Sequence to fold (98 residues):
Amino acid sequence: MTRWVILGLLLLLVLLQYRLWVGEGSVKELHALRAQIEEHREELQRLEARNLALAAEVEDLRTGLEAIEDRARSELGMIQRGEVFLQVIEKDEEEGGQ
Fold:
């Protein structure tokens, strides 16, 4: 009788250990989920920083002409009336020696 009880308890222990290490909700799965959560947190922080930068840029464009002028100069190559545009073209070292 005691052999069967001990055997039954050992079998139950093995089944519980299997579920703990391999089955659904196991330690392995828990570690994988924690790693996923950490990746999502890092991505969220990156996106929040990007959103803050974009919001600051939008606010700057709404309130000041300076940002609009700066963007027009750098991205579109525009100049204001009365300004003179000078373009400096540097010689390549290969061409300069000939």
